[in-house]
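Example 4.3 (complexes with small molecules)
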Amino acid sequence: LLQVFMPLNILGFIYREVRRCLIDVESMFKLLGHRSKLTICPQPLAVADDFDALRFDRVSFSYDGRRKVLNNVSFDIPKGSKVALVGSSGSGKSTLGRLLFRFYDVDSGAVRFGDENINQLDVDDWRQQLGVVPQDTVLFNETLGANLRYGDPTCSDEELAEAIAHADLTQFIAKLPDGLETMVGERGLKLSGGEKQRVSIARMLLKKPQIMIFDEATSALDSRSEQSILAALASVAKDHTSLVIAHRLSTIVDADNIVVLHEGRVVEQGSHQQLLALKQHYFAMWNLQQQSQQSD
Ligand code: ATP
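Answer. The structure with adenosine-5'-triphosphate bound is encoded below.
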């Protein structure tokens, strides 16, 4: 019996690994938009286990070498803090995320992890330090449990339960007749946008990255989903370093620092209250969103 099961087990493992790689590649290309222009450092450094802050230090960048999409952008994400990026469509928020992932190199300035320019770090090692909750989560045709374990296939049941609790999915799973064994994906249970994002949050927690990036979905969620995501985010961000690329300002009022981008430049940064008091860009964005919520 063992002779039959061992090869089947190995085949199952290979199948899962190949599928996992395909999903990674698919997500990467979505994030990239087009080909990478990365230059590889010949003698890369290993990533340090600890850091005081992640720093965007006078970063400028252009996709085509002509139009500057980011212009002298500087801000810090101190370890343990939650920093939010806001700004109108096309202001450069996702581009900063791509530079952080090293899908492109900056034209001038640097992104630093502690004292180290991330250009000097081993790319794969560096990306291992980053966890992302993308706008659109990819679910594969597997059980919900397997989809969650994608963050760390070797995690224990206790670690999984903890991640599920932090991602505010415990009640949702308890209501499913087959619980974690429920099949999801194209051929199984369809999850809502908010539920999928919470699956991503749990996956990211299992991966245990040093920095968490939350790319908020542009499409509005119903207010119950939004509250649930907010609760999950607050629980996750409490003990972690996080960068939130935000479209709805209501989700980031508790951020330690909010960086406002406009046409590739940082025009303001501070807490929600500080930025409101300035009565400029953020204040205008906040009022506009409040008005549109009232008219919904
Ligand atoms: P949104 O809120 O709509 O997602 P954003 O603030 O994330 O916008 P980016 O996606 O960073 O903005 O885009 C910044 C600028 O760079 C835009 O003018 C955009 O047209 C341009 N841009 C983005 N991706 C590319 C690309 N792959 N090639 C060339 N230009 C790009």
